[in-house]
Amino acid sequence: MIHEALRPLGIGKKESDLYRKLLSLGPQPASVLARKMNIPRSSTQFLAESLVQKDILRKIKRKNSTYYHALPPEELPHLLKAKKEKFLYEIEQEEKNLNAIIALLQKETLSESHMPQVSFFEGLDGLQNLYESIFSAKEDVRSLVNFEDRQKHLPEYFNTYYQRRKKEKIFMKAIYPDTKFGRERQNNDKEDYRTSHLVDTKKYFWLPEIQVYDNKVSIACGSKKIGIIIEGKEIADAIKVLFDLAWEGLERKKKTKEK
After folding, report:
1. Assigned domain for 179 exists
2. What is the DSSP string of 67-135?
3. Is the whole-model pTM more than 0.85?
4. How far apart are CA 236 and CA 133, in angstroms?
5. Is the domain of 153 the same as that of 236?
6. Per-residue pLDDT tens digits for 191-205
7. What percent of the chain has pLDDT over 70?
8. What letter does residue 9 receive in the DSSP assignment?
9. What is the β-pairing status of strands 216-221 and 209-213?
10. Cα separation of 23 and 18, whole Å?
11. The domain containing residue 57 runs over which residues?
12. Using CA of residue 170, residue 175, residue 180, residue 183, what is the dihedral sign?
């Protein structure tokens, strides 16, 4: 049990045995430790120096001899905390480096090829990954959505989706069928960080959800459990124009009704 508890500090079983022996004996030179543990002096010194590097032991000079002193047990959690902070810092740096590389690779891709990039998503897990891509959006998201369809197939996911999107300050302009659930969602527009228009279901009804943002067009069909993301500026711009035309028409219709 003790060996396992010390393992996160990078301590193996032999090192753990040496550390515990020093706790019971107090500061000792490698020769004494070797005799007490019944292992070669060279092996003892190797283990001790390894623990010194891990800050588990300290070296003390007494006359012409080097003594090893064990770190008090109550100070071990501080070592683990320091190790955690170092690990998180390294991960953060690696993430920054990776993001820099991705940006460079994207520039190379755009410079070398004008073909749109298409990604396919299958199954409910795949659809969740598709929806997660929206959190990379650098602009407002335009969306043609059927709330019943998405809620029917991914209810748990969408229980937190709206608030996460709001937290990331990703605003949405949405058009969706005028249904009971659609009206309920529209009543939550402010809370969900969204503005929307409803359309007559007798004239306009669809199931696949279409979202466009940046240079991406996302299409998700919950009933078929499939989706695609098309990444291409020209295609995204064209869908944005079509959406904006519909949006402006709905805005004019709303203002006419209000007069």
Report:
1. yes
2. EEEEPPGGGHHHHHHHHHHHHHHHHHHHHHHHHHHHHHHHHHHHHH--SPEEEEEEHHHHHHHHHHGGG
3. no
4. 15
5. yes
6. 999 999 999 988 988
7. 95
8. G
9. antiparallel
10. 9
11. 2-76
12. positive
